[in-house]
Amino acid sequence: NIIRKIRAKAPDASICGDVIVGFPGESEEAFQRTLDLMEEVKFDNLNTFAYSPRPNTEAADWDNQIPPEVQSERLQRVQALAVTHALERSQRYLGRVVEVLVEDRNPKNGDEVMGRTRQGRQVFFPGNVDELKGEYAIVKIVEARTWSLVGAIVDNVK
Fold this sequence. Notes:
single chain, about 160 residues, five-stranded mixed beta barrel, two-stranded parallel sheet
């Protein structure tokens, strides 16, 4: 499949997507195929939603609406798996030295800056935002979080 081809050529490619659970007529079997796809792809980031009817759309009038409690349970299962995979994908960076484009100050810690790897993974590390904003920094990753990484600056690249 296309994901295997991408990962063969670019193992660090960031694969992201969207999942809507509970669309009218979604069977448990169809939902299980969504989970199976998630297991195969292991998305770096997955936006997840429960279906909600919208006025003037065909599906809003279908008789086979999925009960809210089923939608909620399916959404929780998808989100739990998405978190597991995101952390797994973050952990591949542990111990690596990566190039990070510094974007701004960490809003939760003024002594840190935040930036992104070439794959879009957010990285936080100690640094002076006035010196580093808009610059590339060489950063060693020391902690992997579900949606971000923590590092220590090794060098500035101008």
